[in-house]
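Hey all, sorry for the wall of text incoming. These are the two entities for the joint prediction.
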Amino acid sequence: MIIHPDLAALRNDDAPQRQAQAELGAALAAWRDQAAGAELGEEMRRFAEGSPLPDLPRLSALFDPESGKGQQLARSLLATLTRSFAAAPLGQVPLRHFCDDTIAMLMLARCGGASLALQTIDGVGVARRPAPQSASFSPGETWELVLSGEAEARLVTLCQPSPDGGRIQTQPCTLREGDLSVRNGSREALQFCKVEGSLVTLKLQRRDTSGAPSREYRLSDGELLHQAASTSRDSRMELAANLLGRMGRTDAAPLLAAMAEEQGSVSLRWQALRECLGLDTAQGFQTLCAIARNSGDPLAAPAGALRAQLLEQHPRLIALDMGETQCPA
Amino acid sequence: MNLPKIDLSALPDLDTLTGVFGSLVHPAQALEFDDSVVVVMVFIYDMIYP
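and here's what came out:
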């Protein structure tokens, strides 16, 4: 293994790196105070809670192409970071970031399900990728302002979605500096076809809190190919419910029953219900019956079918369905 | 109380399964970039866990 002498030196004494990291953090904090300011943080919080963007003057100004505020924010951040890197090239930007052969992204602010990010898309990376066969639609809203560069893209729109698919419409478009793209993620997706050099955008996103999944459709015929949890929280909770079940944690049955009756992702609720039934028959079955009785619940039909199946297999459960806790047998 | 133990494997899934956050059938071709991208990062420590 070849280790650069600068890195090898840090193995013996990491104080210079810690110092550089502290200075980078301080520089970024100063930028945040000056360029972004506490008001922007407060507006991100209100945006995450559902306030309309036009009601938030600092945040909406960033996405007003006439104001130039978005460009100013990006330029001041890059000036701050490049100054810091000149002094400490091994410093790590203390912002969430992502990078692959096509995209580089810095998350400037994040609050609840809302995020503000600076993003670069590399034209060479885009050209290397095969033509997309599918489009993915994630529930949420996106505002994307082109800060520099030009791209050919296509707006994919999902029309008349049904359980098995939907009608897909595609419309070519060109994105240039100053263009603003506003999208409803549950039915609109933007796919980049060609980028000259690189495209830099400022992107504001807000996730939907309904628990609806993200869905991937085939472009050629609109068939639903896949659906996935729309938030990492839903997947994390589902894994936790499965783990509690495998551990035989009967004490977690009331928690799983409460999860099953919450609003939100039907997949998460169904898995919590299954695990609850496996851990505690009485609690699980009573929860199942309550869900089946609630005709407004999207899980009412599958819960009703499962209740009928279990009653046929275990007739003694009828006592629980009648609201009793003791089995008459 | 004398209730039957319910076998988890006998309980059906919903008609349409839901994958984990960030999963896609055609991930390599997805040229839509949003915050649902999931990256698994591998850390290798050559000494001891810090």
